[in-house]
Amino acid sequence: MVSSEQRRRQLAREKFERQQQRRAQARKRKQRNTVIAAAVAVVLAAGATAFATGAFSGGDDGKDTKAKEQPAASDSAAPPEEKKSPEPALSIDKKATYSMKLDTSQGPITFAMDAAKTPRTANSFKALADKDFFDNTKCHRLTTQGIHVLQCGDPKGDGTGGPGYNIPDENLDALGKAGADGTVTYPPGTVAMANTGAPNSGGSQFFLVYKETKLPPTYTPFGKMDAAGLKTVEKVGKGGVATGGGDGPPKLEVTVKKATVTKG
């Protein structure tokens, strides 16, 4: 017999899946309309060619990506067909230990990255942190009902930003086999990748689990917060969502002032 708590969690998960589908459909419509608009511009005025080209590229900073990444969330690394720049060359030591520290406006959040099991994810995060990619960005999304995560890593701060490339899914079996409901348990302290809902669509957005959360095993778990970091995220979770609902910007604004990745 399904308990009321299990039913509530199931409804929350179904809501997120519907949101993912709607966002994916909206992204496709927007991309199609962009292509049509650019084509019309070229036909109407040859002098608009350079402008249309700029619209196709989304700028030259590699951060203007279209789809929202989902985890429970949405980050947007460009979808595979929109790659603008290559994934960083693998340069980390897969046998070493790496830690990422986020100096945030609500306190420090530090987590160890599993370089052995998620080398390309850890490598990407180190490369981005070394370039100050995460500095002065906001953790833009908090969920407090059914799913308990804080989402960060978007340079645009609205769930649509990314690094301009995708990284593959890794370590998806780390949390065990999915149950009858298609989910696994993401324990408090887990750090996992957000994605667009499609395989291998991670970018720079990630989510921090502050309370036991059940989700499909489709989000790369690549890190574990230390006690102080988890406490910081729990504080943000308790503060609730700014709009008063169960999903939206956190009431306690979280700005990543500095992000660093260290070896050892």
TrEMBL record:
Domain of life where this protein originates: Bacteria
Function, in words: PPIases accelerate the folding of proteins. It catalyzes the cis-trans isomerization of proline imidic peptide bonds in oligopeptides.
Span list, region Disordered: 1-32, 53-93, 239-264
Biased composition (Gly residues): 239-248
Coiled-coil segments: none
Compositional bias (Basic and acidic residues): 1-20, 60-69, 80-93
GO molecular function annotations of the record: peptidyl-prolyl cis-trans isomerase activity
Entry's EC annotation: 5.2.1.8
Family matches, as Pfam families: Pro_isomerase
Protein name, entry field: Putative peptidyl-prolyl cis-trans isomerase
Keywords: Isomerase
InterPro entries from the UniProt entry: Cyclophilin-like_dom_sf, Cyclophilin-type_PPIase_dom, Cyclophilin_A-like
